[in-house]
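User: Show me sequence and structure for the first protein, then do the same for the second.

Assistant: Starting with the first protein.
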Amino acid sequence: MAKIERNDIHIISRHSNWSESEIKARLQRDVYHDKEAWQKFLNLLFISLGVGFTTAGILFFFAYNWADLHKFAKLGLIEGLIIAITAVILFSKWQLNVKNILLTGASMIVGVLFAVFGQIYQTGANAYDFFLGWTLFIFLWVVVSNFAPLWLIFIILINTTVILYIEQVAQNWPEIIPFTLLFGINTVFLFIALIGEKLSADINPPTWFTNILALAAASFGTIAICYGIFDDYQASFLILVIATALLYAYGIYYGIQTKSIFYLSIIPFSLIVIGSALLISWSDDGGMFFVISLFIILSVTFLIANLIKLQKRWVN
């Protein structure tokens, strides 16, 4: 049975003989967070802030004392800290969430280690090598922990590596290729998160995580299609359009099934942007810009009105 929510109680109270005390007791039991829940939240919050500030402090420490430190001290301090954090994670009896937060902090410190190593030995100016090494060396931690924030950092590192590689090495690629590649990467991770949730109970990504992936995939797909429209429909453009159409169709289906306004918002907004780009590609005179402005106003108004209507239907 699904967990009862605040709106459910309000609807039942309007159509039943519940007293005020019964409604208050039901809200207190099923909706409001108790003292234990708040203590757990604050515990994780302060641990996360502590790990984040500690990582930032390590960065500032090396930046301020860089000239006065021997290279052995620079590398030894960071490696010792990573080993100490890993030992605490392996041998302590702390809660799993606390260990995952510490592991996320250790993953960030791995990036500091690679940055310090590159500065000491001048390993080159290709920044994508740095992010690629960082990504590979935390891969096992990401898979073992199955922790959404750490997965998000991992995916950001992959996107950053691809972007920097294209900027520094594959400079001759058509402009549509980088965004198509990024669209594909984020789409794959999104499908793994959504479909894996149904295949295995161990894969249970939070909503914010899948929403970020969906937003990234829709953004890169929209930009890639707009580039394809203005580049006279290159060979890869047809594949991109088909892939985007399939993703958007599944996103609409998933949004309706899960009653998620998020998916039913970003996909139509993406289509509005693509439609506007298509109109501009046909003509860029003043009359066409008036038509595009009218198209955007009417389509956005129609979309918001229908989303509000759909939200009310789901609530009631």
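Switching to the second protein now.
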Amino acid sequence: MAGLQRRFRRLFHAHSGRTVLVPLDHGLTEGLLPGLEHTSAFVDHVARHAAVQGVVLHQGAAEVWGAPRLALDQRLVVHLSGGTRYAEPSYRKTGVCSVDQALRSGADAVSVHVNIGNRFEGEMLSDLAAVRERAHSLGIPVLAMLYARGPAVADDQDPELIGHCIRVGVELGADVVKVGFGKDPHAFAAHVRACPVPVVIAGGPAQPNWSAFLDMVATALDCGAAGVSIGRNLFQHPAPGQAIGDLCQMVHGQAGNDCHG
């Protein structure tokens, strides 16, 4: 599994050991979100920051904006799950791309979205398991995005639910697990300590107070998070290039100042 290990290691900064991933898969779900009207320009912002490890895009967007525009030492993570906000229920995610197609689109890794706490969780868990089997057979790392969403979920920021999401990723063999940070740092830290694979935090909706958002990121890192996977708080920031730089410096320290050319 030398290929898998090598690709996995490239998802993390050589000096800090952490990762900054920028998900840009929102268009399938939400349509033309503010900040993504000129996706190519935003990807160019990302490409200039050597301390960003990669972006997450669906297959078509990966071929149009990802593979041609990212720096060669940045990773392209092709997202294999999808669904629009108009679906009933909107938390159901289905497979929209195969691992093999993702590779043809330029993928260095793949990602899968699973929502637990609803009647479709079995389908989504099955999708994750199948993707993991195929991806690992080809030496490709798998990022699992795991959230508690559905009728059985009263509070998706419940620390125990976030911990359960982390454990689901471990049990099904994900190489990196992405979850929300929640509202209890001590509980988050305990779940991360019990997790044998890296855990990265989601950014969620764009926050009005950028300084407070960075403080949240710092707390998550102190609790053991291996990095971030943050989209809207970057591409909807008034100065996205500066925001990317701020975030990279927060995650990687002094090494986060690296820029391409």
